[in-house]
Amino acid sequence: MTADLMGIDIAQGGAVALLTVVVLMVLTGRLVPRRTYDDLLKERDTWREAHTVSEAARTSERAQTQELLELSRTSAHALQALPRMGLEEDSEVDAR
Predict the structure, then answer these.
(1) 8 forms bridges with which residues in the sheet?
(2) Contacts with 68 (C-beta within 8 Å, 6 or more apart), sequence order
(3) pTM, two decimal places
């Protein structure tokens, strides 16, 4: 039983076939140097950490926005409940 790669018998080619396979793997990106692989892993981890920090900041911002919206609603209701000068007491105040 011989090893076939892309329809080519590697055992008959010897070193030339092996070198050709390695060169093809490097050119297609299936075989990369260790340093390149380590750099890609480091970059991936950096982006992952940046995303985590960004999401934490976004969550904090969302909580602050919700609190500010609730405070503004409370203030608006309090201001609308105050009597207005120059209006009759029986007239209803418009909520805007």
Answers:
(1) 5
(2) none
(3) 0.51
